[in-house]
Amino acid sequence: MFDKIISGGKLEKKVIEDIKTHIKTLCLATECFKNALTSSDIESTFCVADLEREADSIRREIISTIHEGAFLPFIRPNICRFIEMVDEAFDILEDAAFEFRYLNMEVYRIIEPECVKIASINTNICELLSIAFDSLITKGDLKEKNLAIRVYEKQVDDLKFDITEKLRKIEIKNFWEGKIITDFVEYLTRISDLIEDASDYLYIIEISLR
């Protein structure tokens, strides 16, 4: 298991602590974005970009430490892939925050309740990913967390369907208005999908260590 791989290794312990910080930073960004949507405060969305820059620095530090020799070679690609998945979720969150600044607010008001719910789920699912990673380290029940993340992801899929049904019934005035709202919804709903993929990869890492 993971504890046998990291026992006594300073580099390994550093990577694990940095991964925890990386995931926690993503959780802070999802919370920040949820608050921005709840308050419809466009200026608040810039905190996502600030946290993304901070996370990017942490990601580079993790990869650098792994290249210094942390972990046995067979497990390094799996850990790097997990980090990249979390980083991709960060990028998509930043894209959603960017598009939000250019939304037609009259159109957004129609789907606002569903979008706020999805943003809240994104925060919860991110916290679950953090707990799932701790479970991998401490031999907890990873399968249970993985299942809970899947349940949240299914809720986002259902809400995306509701949003699509609403948007189909309204008149879009021009190409850019339609593209921005479509991209925003796509980015907002893709975050949970990426976190689910990252959670699945934790399960793959666990199996590879048996």
UniProtKB/TrEMBL annotation:
Residues annotated as signal peptide: none
InterPro entries: DUF47, PhoU-like_sf, Put_Phosphate_transp_reg
Any Pfam family hit: PhoU_div
Top-level taxon in the UniProt lineage: Bacteria
Family: Belongs to the UPF0111 family.
UniProt xrefs under NCBIfam families: TIGR00153 family protein
Protein name: TIGR00153 family protein
